[in-house]
Design a protein that fits this description.
646 residues, Neuraminidase, 3 domains, alpha+beta, 38 strands
């Protein structure tokens, strides 16, 4: 008897799920930014139940995993607003930034972490250690009254003294020190570019005291070429990733540089510090992760022949590759269960082991929806991509004659990427009877520069068309109910959501989390890192004011006639609450069913358990009221204004 016959038919959305919101927030941690120091491995854990704090963890063979940062510290940087790597370790000591006081602390695990530098005026990120000179090298950001913040490359002595190594560029990232300490490489870029548009890799010579000698040389990159992750080999050779061929490929510095050409992406959009897609093992070999048609792989790469040898592992995404000798560590995801921190030792009898899982509660058998990679036709005779998740539950099935509602997800960025790693927040929906399409619309990473550049000048058009066409494709294929199509997204995905609702007639409901309703307001009221982002996505401000007006949902609210849920953090500096509140008031006045939740203390993206849980429950209640089903469990009923008018 087929398994589905044994299951109970029940209306989609009403299924009792083995994956509760409490399980997502109480048993799941966000793992990232691994680092090797001798026999020890370090990583960070974002713990929603601990007020959304990020904790620095150290693992050793003898002691296992133990917290290293102070209990009340939050290991987090806000440089470029999105932060990233906020620690480094060497010689048994770790240095990390505490978000609350912006102080750098040194921790060994023997005594309480000790403050060594910081006065609240500088924010730090992307640390490396210059041990012979007893200092750290880091990216720094200094706030300035009445003007943009200033970015610098600095040295921070172990006694706290801060000196500038490079300044004048709008942005800096990825400092790397040569093995003998005589050279320093980094990437920098200038307005209006974002780092995936155009960056320059520069290299400076250092004197014995670590001061920059002469004028740094330009290694690679330009205003139209993006360079990512400079890295020195053990012999002092400089490597980097560049997209000058149309894909982010690996290069070796020289005259001419050696180019390892492939129609695959070896780089990432530099949204956060500490992103690493390769780790050098020796003068001839590196481990690389790369995206082939959006799917990430792992391989050993021969730097002499250019040959890549695939490494067969059950993991499907590999972040933060770091290496020491024949040993590598990375943060990984897989389609069928929680991700983890993974160690791989080449030549060992048992080369792979998991040091930490993001959740110790594996999903029950039959409850995981394995994504299907789909390619579908879109405007201009082009093809776009998505991952499709069908409903999956060990106890329930879709009743005969019913098709599941579809949630179309638009990722943030918009230069981000949906991947096929297990995401509890997607499985929250599929285990309740929803289908999900996680769309890699034109502009997404993982498919080459031409695909990424589809969005230039076309934000609010290409992304919207691709999300609409993903929904149409799945409805036509018979997978979902065309009368219950939902679009959701956060940040840039929230803009795509609101634009789709205002300018298309495909979706029956939407949820916008800290999304953008008014492009004009965003252009004039956001942080430095993204302050010129819209120049390429929309057009220069104010010259392209008419385009900004034409593509802002708030300027065309009459186009939204279906229910919308807005979720917003009160401390969001990227997309301030006034964006959501202006949309809510307008829709409320127009008689459109609308609900709004403001989470005090949350920023751009929700980090605390209470906020994440409340957001999931509110969204489920919202859909239940809109589409006429009763969610399982004792959920708070969300207040929806104008619902009686729907």
């Amino acid at each position: 008897m087929p398994d589905d016959i044994r299951k109970t038919p029940a209306p989609c959305g009403s299924w009792a799920s083995p994956l509760s919101a409490d399980a997502i927030t109480g048993a799941t941690v966000g793992l990232g930014l691994p680092w090797i120091d001798g026999d020890a491995v370090y990583w960070t854990e974002l713990r929603p139940w601990n007020k959304g704090r990020t904790t620095l963890v150290r693992w050793t063979e003898q002691d296992g995993a133990a917290d290293l940062s102070a209990k009340d510290h939050n290991v987090r940087s806000r440089v470029h607003e999105y932060g990233g790597r906020a620690y480094v370790a060497a010689g048994g000591t770790a240095w990390y930034l505490n978000a609350a006081d912006r102080m750098i602390y040194a921790a060994t695990g023997q005594d309480a972490p000790r403050a060594i530098a910081g006065d609240g005026r500088l924010e730090f990120a992307d640390f490396i250690v210059d041990a012979p000179r007893k200092r750290l090298i880091a990216v720094a950001e200094r706030a300035r009254n009445g003007q943009e913040s200033e970015n610098l490359l600095v040295a921070v002595a172990f006694d706290g003294k801060v000196t500038s190594l490079a300044e004048g560029a709008d942005f800096y990232a990825a400092p790397k020190l040569s093995p003998n300490g005589s050279k320093l490489a980094w990437i920098e870029w200038y307005h209006p570019n974002m780092p995936w548009d155009g960056t320059v890799c520069r290299e400076a010579r250092l004197d014995g005291d670590g001061r920059v000698l002469g004028v740094p040389r330009n290694v690679a990159g330009s205003d139209e070429i993006s360079v990512f992750q400079p890295e020195y080999g053990p012999d002092g050779t400089l490597y980097y990733v560049s997209d000058q061929s149309g894909y982010w490929n690996l290069y070796r510095d020289g005259d001419p540089p050696a180019h390892y050409r492939a129609a695959a992406e070896f780089g990432l959009p530099h949204w956060q510090f500490g992103m690493r897609t390769y780790a050098i093992l020796d003068a001839r070999t590196t481990v690389v992760t790369f995206a082939l048609d959006g799917d990430w792989r792992l391989a050993l790469f021969d730097l002499e022949s250019g040959k890549a040898t695939p490494i067969d592992l059950p993991w499907s995404r590999f972040d933060g590759l770091t290496a020491a000798g024949r040993r590598i560590v990375f943060s990984a995801a897989r389609p069928d269960g929680p991700g983890g921190i993974v160690e791989l030792t080449f030549g060992a009898a048992e080369p792979e082991r998991v040091l930490r899982l993001s959740s110790n509660d594996p999903p029950p058998a039959g409850s995981v929806s394995i994504p299907e990679a789909i390619a579908f036709p879109t405007e201009g005779g082009l093809t776009a991509h998505a991952y499709f998740y069908a409903p999956a539950n060990p106890d329930f099935r879709v009743p005969d004659g019913e098709k599941p509602p579809l949630i179309v997800m638009g990722h943030g960025g918009p230069t981000g990427q949906a991947d096929n790693g297990y995401a509890a927040k997607i499985q929250f929906w599929t285990t309740r009877g929803f289908a999900v399409a996680d769309v890699n619309y034109g502009g997404s990473t993982g498919y080459g520069r031409a695909y990424r550049d589809r969005l230039k000048g076309n934000w609010g058009v290409v992304d919207v068309d691709d999300c609409c066409n993903a929904a149409r494709f799945l409805a036509k294929r018979g997978d979902v109910d065309p009368e219950r199509l939902i679009i959701v997204g956060g940040s840039a995905g929230g803009y795509t959501t609101l634009s789709a609702l205002a300018f298309r007639s495909v979706f029956k409901a939407g949820r916008s989390s800290y999304g953008i309703g008014d492009l004009e307001t965003l252009a004039q009221d956001t942080h430095k890192f993204e302050s010129r982002y819209l120049d390429s996505l929309i057009g220069p401000w104010p010259e392209a004011k008419a385009v900004y007006h034409a593509r802002s949902a708030l300027k065309h609210p009459e186009g939204i006639d279906c229910p919308v849920l807005f979720l917003q953090g009160s401390e969001d500096k990227v997309v301030p609450p006034n964006q959501a509140e202006a949309m809510v008031e307008t829709l409320r006045g127009n008689g459109v069913p609308v609900a709004y939740l403001l989470f005090e203390g949350e920023g751009h993206g929700f980090r605390t358990a209470d906020a994440i849980k409340a957001a999931l429950h509110a969204e489920l209640s919202f859909y239940g009221q809109i589409f006429g089903f009763t969610p399982a469990g004792d959920l708070p009923v969300l207040t929806i204004d104008n619902l009686e008018k729907a």
